[in-house]
Amino acid sequence: MSAGGDFLVRRNRFDAVGQSLVFAAGVIVALVFVSIMILEFENSRRLSDTVNGRMTEMTASVRDSGVMMYDGVKVLGADVLNFGKKHFYAVSGSGPFELMITTRQGQTVLINNRDDMEAAVAASALGTDPGAVGPTEEFLGSVEQNDNGMITAVKFTYV
User: Fold this and answer.
1) How far is 140 from 129, CA to CA, in rounded Å?
2) 3-class SS letters over 23-72
3) How many angstroms separate the CA atoms of 152 and 91, rounded?
4) Is there a single domain that holds both residue 105 and residue 154?
5) What is the secondary structure of 74-143 as a DSSP string?
6) What is the pTM of this model?
7) How far apart are alpha carbons 45 and 123 in whole angstroms?
8) CA distance 138 to 74
9) Which of 18, 52, 57, 59 has an alpha carbon within 20 to 30 A of 68's alpha carbon?
10) pLDDT tens digit string along 119-143?
């Protein structure tokens, strides 16, 4: 019986070693999976940042196309005022760019925010102010951009 007892003790020792090896293998596999998940998370974050950047560029391009269409185009004074209302009435602080309107009298009206735009509309409604924009007067539009392609100013000059 002592021979059988020694056998059982040895067998239990081998079972403990086997269980330890299985546990160690499980820990290694878990670490590999966690590492893969971290790498995939980083890749997905980079992909998301890239997609967001491109969407921002596309949004800016679409927004700017509505402004760029005035470059080199003759428009009526009513269109000039509507353009200003569209781009400056929705903004509480400084506008997205400067709007410069050179009137029939040669005065340049500089618009940077909603208050400036409201003053220009009020002056135009009176029609007697040197800064007035007549609704049927013709203006030539031009768009200025900086080196990065950002629109810095839109000018409408009486023709």
Assistant:
1) 21
2) HHHHHHHHHHHHHHHHHHHHHHHHHHHHHHHHHHHHHHHHHHHHHHCCCC
3) 16
4) yes
5) EEEHHHHHHHHHHHHTT-SSEEEEEEEEE-TTSPEEEEEEHHHHHHHHHHHHHS-STT---TT-EEEEEE
6) 0.62
7) 52
8) 6
9) 52
10) 899 988 887 787 889 999 999 999 9
